[in-house]
Amino acid sequence: MTAQPGQIAVPERLTQTVRLWEGGAGLDWLAGLPGRFAEQLDRRGLVLERICEPGGRISLVGYVHRSDDLAPAVLKIGVVNRETAQEHAALTRWAGRGAVLLLAAEPDQGVLLLERLHGDIPLRSLAEAKAMLEAAGLLQRLWVEPGEDHPFTPLAERVAELSALVREHRALPGAADALPLVDEALETAAALAADQPEHLLLHGDFHHGNVLAADRAPWLAIDPRPLVGERAYDLARLARDRLDTLAGSPGPRGALRRRLHQLADAVEVDHDRLRGWTLFRTVEAGLWHLSTGAGEQAELYLEFASWL
To answer: Which residue numbers are catalytic?
Structure first.
């Protein structure tokens, strides 16, 4: 028997995030979410075992199994936006190589039926050095040609969109002390985006929390925000992972330099391009957090960027 809408509880984190990020439209989306989830269960012959807590920030995720053969899977219904619209296309392109396997999808509705991974064992559960090594190896499996007539956003286009937001957010009162850093990040990103040495399929949001233990491989990636561009951009998101741990280490500036060099050497990308993209992606994240009222998180990101 499949679950009824009233039995499907939307996690608090999802509610808070969608309300904050999507406004009134997000509230409408949340209101109908339990019903849409129940309808998918019924249509696909799935039995809900449990809703994942805290789950995704912009998606409702449930552990399910097929009613006919008990095969385990994950049903995910997420907000469809500029960043998430091509998640299914990236998973299709990878076909399970380095990433979670896509079993079925309704992209317009943000519906994905996925292979079941071990959601309680992220790569973050490993010690940092080991996790970085595993992450670098996995990323190299994901960096493939995007294919002819691919739907993915070019990196330069995405960077232009993010740069526009950075310019908008630089006017926030909390950004005043960081303006020289912001300007440097914008100039660096413009130069890097204008001279793309590679056009590979990128994960777009690759960090230790988006890599889970699996049965058919040690680790597999989830939740891509796919783009087409250079590897250094993808690696830059990983470079700022576990930021709080890095900030609390002795000599964080030196630790950051070592991390960048180790990551760049591990996958053979240009050190300066990695440094530049890390600067831009960290400043952009810091100002975005500032715009949402997450002042402490914003301060940490901007401090990290200053070490670069």
So the answer is: 205
